[in-house]
């Protein structure tokens, strides 16, 4: 496949070659946006993107050290170390590296002569894309976007994978969040066919109105090369907008009177299946199909796919065969504790090269010390020889730090044989040489191979994986869920599911509120508000937060031992020695003269047995909270203590905490706090002779006092999806945590009988069905929810608490939920049971409910 020479890029993209690469024949082969994902440095071009809280130029030295030699940077950007720091590298300066990335992908797309289908819409894009790929794969060699890579950077990366020689069809999804974005995606994808899923009318912050959003989305389909747009004619706004934009359509409908190319009628059939009658008058075709599901979203998604298949005139019998093999698209990555101190990443997304690369990225992000292991089945990728396929797999492993590979399957096991042949022979040739790379790029890689999952399970001893971080990645038919079950720690019925995508979403929401350059400290005290400190901290490190904060040194030490390297502030380090803080690079908040004196004493007599620097400190100023910190009246004494050390005292920041940032009634008080803080900070900075980082705002403050961001803010509960200030658009934050338990048993209670301790729950009005749930106050489920104050959701229906909450269980009334059975899931909080409303019922706040979930409740971390 022809890749452009790097030195020809100015002609293609514009811009100025700051330095030609030493090797004039260097091709631009891989696009690289993230310094943590260097796979193959040879031929990788790094695009230095800049965002509100991110500047790709900072990572140039790190990338250069890793062997990357091609860079596209912003015109006039300061290059760390200057041009001289990058001998032999090629550097191109352009006005916008993002625009250059997109233009390069567009030029690459233009090399492909085959059909390209673009998908957009409010819901179902990813599933429809994945299903179409499943349904069409017998006929086509398809290049498609991995997962939901549909953004301004995701689309160029996806399109870059199109191979004009090999692929026969491209399927790409496009998603936008602001006006003006779709035209850019259309120029990259240049679709010859389009598919519009659904039009959701939910309010969207990036658009003036839903109509504007719809028109913007349809921009994807207005190019001259577009032959047809597949869409459902039952949504009137879509119909009229498509007509107005003169987009050629191919339509389907479920309404008998609606004119359309295809008419579908659905009818419920045997357990969980649906009968479908399809009429395609133009091809004088009438056929019936059985769909292997009954839920509305799946039916809708399947009809979109059927329209494409019928238009291509695939034989109905063949369509039916493929439909029955359609499987739900699992797009979750679950992270959970394993047995013997191991930690599992269970990724159920497709095991092709793109899916494997994404899963390995997730592994690369883990900071846990210890060995990293990959349990991998045969990789499914049509069109590549085994040797080439596994050479590519091998190239992905070092960047993720994999040092042990367990290969399961007939194909992958062949590598063992081939590698042994290779080692035995003196001439390494052809395909054997390529396959052998699976073992040779990293001499430290331990490998073991099994022909089947059964063969692996038969000899499995979970202790052999003690302390390892294990990525489990298998194609569906290998049934790797059995391996996960064997390796995971025992789970009792109650689970706190933490959605890491929602967490990232909330982080970005708060970041958007910050002025450029404002730093972000994130509070991960109290086990990250109950969510799990290591996983949250690890995500924050990946998302490049600037600081973490914990309440006690113990919490900071646990993070360090789990491999977290961000700076960590400790709010209440009082009884701990500075040596301990020093050893773990923890930075104490100093809030009293006693602490300051103790610190200064250590500082003056540098402990010779500790060659590490004295910890940096944060001075806490009390401006009205009346909890911890130096008062304004203390200022003269404080300045007198600081002055003699002004030149070298490592003061990392000055901070204060607002008492009522979330309450408009106290805004005058808050303003007084802020002006006191400004005054005190100015005096301290004058005494020290230099400026210091200043910060005051918590989550509510970030939203309500944008003028008081100073140099940094301290995000807390907002990250976990709770808006303490009630000012955010309710749709702006996503709930992060979901607490679930299961029904242990159901009993029928005759009228007049009582339930539980103290006989407080009484069945008064006739016979009741009572379910016992596997959660009690020892799990953190508050006793105040007893006797009707609380409800849980079972099958989406509310079930009120009956009787008192016990230590390990509680009872709910399920008389009105006849479907409820032992083993069913009961939702305690999460989607449908928002924390603030639940908290209000028992007179507390969301903070308490979150942090009360006890450590014995297993945390499972998911991302999509
Ligand atoms: C907990 C805490 C925060 C974060 O508060 P939220 O209301 O959760 O945003 C900020 N600053 C300090 C000093 C804190 O203790």
UniProtKB/TrEMBL annotation:
Please give the SUPFAM superfamilies that the UniProt record associates with this protein: Alanine racemase C-terminal domain-like (SSF50621), MurD-like peptide ligases, catalytic domain (SSF53623), MurD-like peptide ligases, peptide-binding domain (SSF53244), MurE/MurF N-terminal domain (SSF63418), PLP-binding barrel (SSF51419)
Question: What organism is recorded for this protein?
Answer: Hymenobacter cyanobacteriorum
GO CC aspect terms: cytosol
Q: Which residues form the Alanine racemase C-terminal domain?
A: 736-862
Known EC number = 5.1.1.1
Q: Which residues carry this modification: N6-(pyridoxal phosphate)lysine?
A: 525
From which domain of life does this come?
A: Bacteria
As its record notes, the protein acts as a catalyst of: L-alanine = D-alanine
Q: What Gene Ontology biological process does one annotation of this record name?
A: D-alanine biosynthetic process
Q: Which GO terms describe its molecular function?
A: acid-amino acid ligase activity; alanine racemase activity; ATP binding; pyridoxal phosphate binding
The cofactors named for this UniProt entry are: pyridoxal 5'-phosphate
**UniProtKB keywords:** Isomerase, Ligase, Pyridoxal phosphate
Asked if the record carries the keyword Iron-sulfur, the reply is no
Record-annotated active site = 525 (proton acceptor), 757 (proton acceptor)
The cross-references to PANTHER family, in alphabetical order and at most eight, read: ALANINE RACEMASE, ALANINE RACEMASE, CATABOLIC-RELATED
Q: In which pathway does it act?
A: Amino-acid biosynthesis; D-alanine biosynthesis; D-alanine from L-alanine: step 1/1
Q: What class of enzyme is it?
A: isomerase
What family is this protein classified in?
Belongs to the alanine racemase family.
InterPro entries from the UniProt entry:
Ala_racemase, Ala_racemase/Decarboxylase_C, Ala_racemase_C, Ala_racemase_N, Mur-like_cat_sf, Mur_ligase_C_dom_sf, Mur_ligase_cen, Mur_ligase_N
What is its biological role? Catalyzes the interconversion of L-alanine and D-alanine. May also act on other amino acids.
Q: What is this protein called?
A: Alanine racemase
| Ligand binding (substrate) | 627, 807
């Amino acid at each position: 496949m022809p890749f452009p020479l790097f030195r020809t890029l100015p002609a293609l993209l514009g811009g100025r070659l700051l330095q030609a690469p030493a090797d004039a024949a260097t091709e631009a082969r891989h696009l690289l946006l993230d310094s943590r994902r260097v796979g193959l440095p040879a031929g990788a071009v790094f695009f230095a993107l800049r965002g509100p809280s991110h500047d790709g130029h900072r990572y140039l030295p790190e990338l250069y050290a890793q062997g990357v030699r091609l860079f596209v940077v912003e015109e006039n950007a300061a290059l760390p170390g200057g041009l001289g720091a990058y001998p032999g590298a090629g550097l191109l300066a352009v006005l916008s590296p993002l625009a250059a990335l997109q233009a390069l992908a567009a030029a690459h797309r233009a090399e492909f002569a085959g059909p390209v289908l673009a998908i957009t819409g409010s819901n179902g894009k990813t599933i429809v894309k994945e299903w179409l790929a499943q349904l069409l794969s017998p006929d086509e060699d398809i290049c498609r976007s991995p997962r939901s890579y549909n953004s301004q950077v995701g689309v160029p990366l996806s399109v870059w994978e199109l191979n004009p020689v090999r692929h026969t069809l491209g399927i790409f999804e496009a998603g936008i969040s602001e006006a003006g974005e779709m035209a850019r995606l259309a120029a990259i994808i240049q679709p010859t066919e389009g598919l519009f899923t659904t039009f959701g009318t939910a309010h969207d912050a990036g658009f003036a109105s839903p109509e504007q959003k719809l028109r913007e989305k349809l921009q994807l389909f207005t190019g001259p090369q577009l032959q047809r747009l597949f869409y459902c004619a039952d949504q009137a706004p879509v119909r009229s907008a498509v007509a107005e934009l003169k987009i050629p359509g191919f339509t389907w409908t479920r309404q008998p009177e609606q004119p359309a190319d295809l008419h579908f009628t659905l009818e419920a059939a045997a357990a969980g299946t649906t009968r479908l009658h399809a009429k395609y008058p133009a091809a004088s075709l009438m056929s019936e199909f059985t769909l292997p599901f009954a839920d509305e979203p799946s039916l809708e998604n399947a009809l979109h796919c059927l329209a494409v298949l019928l238009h291509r005139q695939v034989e109905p019998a063949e369509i039916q065969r493929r439909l029955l093999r359609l499987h739900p698209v699992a797009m979750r990555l679950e992270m959970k504790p394993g047995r013997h101190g191991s930690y599992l990443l269970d990724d159920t997304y497709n095991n092709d090269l793109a899916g494997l690369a994404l899963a390995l990225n997730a592994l690369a992000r883990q900071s846990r010390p210890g060995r990293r292991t990959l349990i991998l089945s045969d990789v499914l990728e049509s069109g590549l020889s085994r040797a080439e396929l596994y050479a590519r797999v091998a190239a992905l492993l070092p960047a993720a730090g994999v040092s042990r590979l367990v290969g399961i399957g007939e194909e992958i096991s062949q590598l063992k044989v081939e590698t042994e042949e290779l080692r035995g022979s003196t001439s390494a040739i052809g395909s054997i040489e390529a396959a052998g790379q699976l073992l040779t790029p990293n001499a430290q890689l331990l490998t073991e191979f099994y022909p089947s999952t059964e063969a692996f399970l038969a000899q499995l001893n979970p202790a052999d994986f003690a302390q390892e971080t294990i990525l489990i990645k298998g194609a569906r038919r290998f049934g790797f869920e059995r391996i996960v079950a064997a390796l995971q720690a025992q789970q009792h019925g109650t689970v706190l599911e933490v959605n890491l995508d929602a967490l990232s979403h909330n982080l970005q929401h708060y970041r958007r509120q910050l002025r450029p350059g404002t730093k972000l400290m994130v509070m991960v005290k109290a086990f990250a508000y109950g969510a799990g400190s290591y996983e949250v901290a690890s995500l924050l490190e990946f998302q490049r937060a600037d600081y973490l904060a914990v309440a006690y040194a113990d919490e900071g030490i646990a993070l360090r031992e789990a491999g977290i390297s961000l700076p960590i502030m400790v709010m209440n380090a009082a009884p701990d020695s500075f040596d301990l803080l020093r050893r773990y690079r923890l930075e104490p908040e100093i809030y009293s003269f006693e602490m300051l004196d103790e610190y200064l004493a250590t500082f003056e007599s540098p402990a010779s047995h500790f060659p590490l620097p004295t910890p940096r400190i944060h001075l806490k100023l009390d401006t009205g909270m009346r909890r911890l910190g130096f008062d304004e009246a203390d200022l003269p004494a404080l300045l007198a203590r600081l002055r003699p050390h002004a030149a070298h005292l490592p003061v990392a920041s000055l901070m204060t905490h607002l008492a009522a940032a979330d309450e408009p009634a106290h805004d005058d008080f808050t303003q007084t706090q802020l002006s006191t803080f400004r005054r005190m900070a100015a005096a301290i900075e004058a005494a020290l002779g230099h400026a210091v980082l200043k910060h005051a705002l918590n989550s509510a403050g970030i939203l309500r006092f944008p003028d008081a961001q100073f140099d940094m803010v301290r995000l807390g509960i907002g990250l976990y999806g709770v808006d303490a200030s009630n000012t955010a658009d309710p749709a702006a934050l996503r709930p992060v945590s979901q607490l679930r338990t299961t029904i242990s048993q159901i009993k029928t209670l005759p009228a007049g009988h009582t339930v539980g301790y103290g006989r407080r729950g009484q069945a008064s009005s006739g016979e009741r069905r009572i379910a016992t749930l596997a959660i009690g106050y020892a799990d953190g489920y508050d006793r105040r929810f007893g006797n009707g104050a609380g409800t849980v959701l079972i099958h989406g229906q509310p079930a009120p608490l009956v009787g008192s909450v016990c230590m390990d269980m509680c009872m709910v009334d399920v008389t009105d939920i006849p479907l409820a059975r032992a083993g069913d899931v009961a939702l305690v909080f999460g989607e449908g049971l928002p924390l603030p409303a639940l908290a209000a019922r028992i007179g507390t706040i969301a903070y308490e409910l979150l942090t009360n979930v006890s450590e014995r409740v297993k945390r499972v971390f998911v991302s999509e």
